[in-house]
Design goal:
The protein has four helices and no strands. The protein is mostly helical and 118 residues long.
Length: 118
């Protein structure tokens, strides 16, 4: 379940900004999707290079708006069913977790001179 603010942000992702901004977002989300599917770094680098070559091939295309729509539909088609979520981000396992400090934890301000033996 997503928060209403997250749903609104996702809806505005492809409707706001210039064409350049939308293409940049598409590329970035494409890289994240490739990273979700390719668990080994060498596979990810190869797939990312192929995706970058496809973006470069269409960089100066006249029908940029239709290519953008095709890219968004392709991105949604290849979306991972269980994407990687950073633990401290929304939806992560550590989201809004405030672990209390240990009762013996203290702040030392003398930077290594706390022992008189040194």
């Amino acid at each position: 379940m997503e928060a209403p603010a997250v749903r609104a942000a996702k809806a505005a992702l492809w409707t706001t900004g210039s064409h350049h901004d939308k293409a940049r977002r598409l590329y970035r989300h494409g890289l994240k999707t490739v990273l979700n599917w390719a668990i080994h770094r060498d596979i990810f680098i190869k797939e990312a290079a192929e995706m970058r070559a496809e973006f470069e091939k269409n960089r100066y295309a006249v029908d940029g708006a239709t290519l953008l729509v095709q890219g968004i539909t392709k991105l949604k088609k290849f979306e991972h069913p269980n994407p990687y979520i950073i633990p401290t981000e929304y939806g992560g396992s550590k989201w809004q977790r405030n672990v209390p400090l240990h009762e013996k934890a203290e702040l030392v301000l003398d930077y290594g001179k706390e022992h008189p033996d040194y």
